[in-house]
Amino acid sequence: MDFIAGAIGGGLSTAVGYPLDTVKIWGFYKGVSASVLAVSVISSVSFGTYKNFLCTICKLRYGAADAKPSKLDVSLAGVAAGAARVLLMTPSEVAKVRMQTQRNPHPSTASPQPVSEPKYRGSLHCLKVIAKEEGFGGLYKGCSALLCRDCSSSAIYFLTYSALCDWLKPAGKDKPGLLIVLLSGGFAGVLAWGLATPMDVIKSRMQTDELDQHKYKGLIHCARESVRKEGAKVLFKGLGLNCIRAFPVNMVVFVTYEAVLRVTDHYTNKK
Fold first, then answer.
1. Which of 78, 145, 148, 179 could form a disulfide with 155 if both were Cys (CB 3.0 to 4.6 A apart)?
2. Residue by residue, what is the 3-state secondary structure of the chain?
3. Count of CB atoms situated within 10 Å of the CB of 196
């Protein structure tokens, strides 16, 4: 059920966060067709992997899957969720970034020159072109940066949410209320993106590096060249926007996730 709840939460959060996400590299709603489906699938895998991995850890360490996990348990489950996300999301991330950054000038009456066709006609066409021109490895450009970004930020994400819910929840209550879920989810998203932003910058640069450009040899080279040319502040480009976006998006993710699980539990227990 965690997989389904995660998918619904991720899908709804796309409507909140996608315009703000694309402002970072322009192309307001370009690539949205890939994003809606991808976010739902990725969120499903992330929450499902997290919960199942956490239950497995608790069963191995404490003898019961529903035992109260430690902060280390939550963090390890978060790392596993982050790694699972990367395996699925890298190709869609590459397509989204390429679609958003390609130039597609509109014809003008003032300019009689013909307008060139965009290289990528859609998300699936983008993936096909990348695979043809750059090979299978092209679909996983920036994977190393994504692993660094998502494993660490996912651990912080789930740990922050769990810790805040435990801290804010009134004594004697088994589950946090709506306001606590909203606040905990929002702050978890902000902290996770605060940690993830430098690697997100490097990831986007690596993924927009097409075969004919080939500016970066890898993660460390990309980071070094970016800092050398633009200073350390380049690693924090979009930090403010990422945090502004993260709060409402993750409020929606967690409140939807919890609501789906609670409704399901309610009807399951009635039977």
1. 78
2. CHHHHHHHHHHHHHHHHHHHHHHCCCCCCCCHHHHHHHHHHHHHHHHHHHHHHHHHHHHHHHCCCCCCCCHHHHHHHHHHHHHHHHHHHHHHHHHHHHHHHCCCCCCECCECCCCCCCCCCCHHHHHHHHHHHHCHHHHHCCHHHHHHHHHHHHHHHHHHHHHHHHHHCCCCCCCCCHHHHHHHHHHHHHHHHHHHHHHHHHHHHHHCCCCCCCCCCCHHHHHHHHHHHHCHHHHHCCHHHHHHHHHHHHHHHHHHHHHHHHHHHHHHHHC
3. 24
Rounded Cα distance between 220 and 198, Å, is 12
The rounded distance, in Å, linking the Cα atoms of 177 and 180 is 5
As beta bridge partners, residue 111 has: 108
Nearest-angstrom CA–CA distance, 269 and 235: 49
- Burial category of 186 from C-beta neighbours within 10 Å (exposed 0-12, middle 13-18, buried 19 and up): buried
Contacts of 144 (CB under 8 A, 6+ apart): 218, 219
Please, are residues 191 and 250 in contact by the beta-carbon 8 Å criterion?
no
Question: Rounded CA gap, 119 and 7, in Å?
Answer: 31
Gap between the Cα atoms of 208 and 217, Å rounded: 13
Mean pLDDT of 184-191: 94
The tokens describing 194, both together, are: 């605060």
pLDDT tens figures, 80-128: 999 998 888 888 878 877 887 776 544 444 445 555 677 777 778 888 8
Q: How far is CA 144 from CA 21, 105, 156, in A?
A: 21, 33, 19
User: Could you tell me the two tokens for 174?
Assistant: 């088994």
